[in-house]
Every structure is written in C-alpha cells, then in structure tokens.
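Hey, resending since the last one bounced:
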Amino acid sequence: MNKWIADCKTMLEQMIYEENPPSFDELIVSLTELKNRINSLGWKFNFNF
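The structure tokens again:
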C-alpha cells in the first residue's frame, strides 16, 4: 500500500492539476463505492459453447 500512496503523491505533484485534488484516502473511498455499486448490479453471464 505504501507504494500506491507514493505513486499517488507523485501523480498529484506531476500530473494532476486540479485546484483541490482528492487525497489518496478519498480516492480509495470513491473506488470502493464504485466497486460496490458495480457488484450490486446483479449481472448474470451465461456462456454457451
């Protein structure tokens, strides 16, 4: 996780030019919420070969 935090810091310094960029923790919360929303869709996949 420490490498992800360091990478996020580098991206915020060099690539993200927002006035108020999200923190690493805010990004993790947003991604977790997105993952939960996607997983709750109840998609069913049927593969017929």
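The helical segments are 2-14, 24-39.

Sorry for the duplicate.
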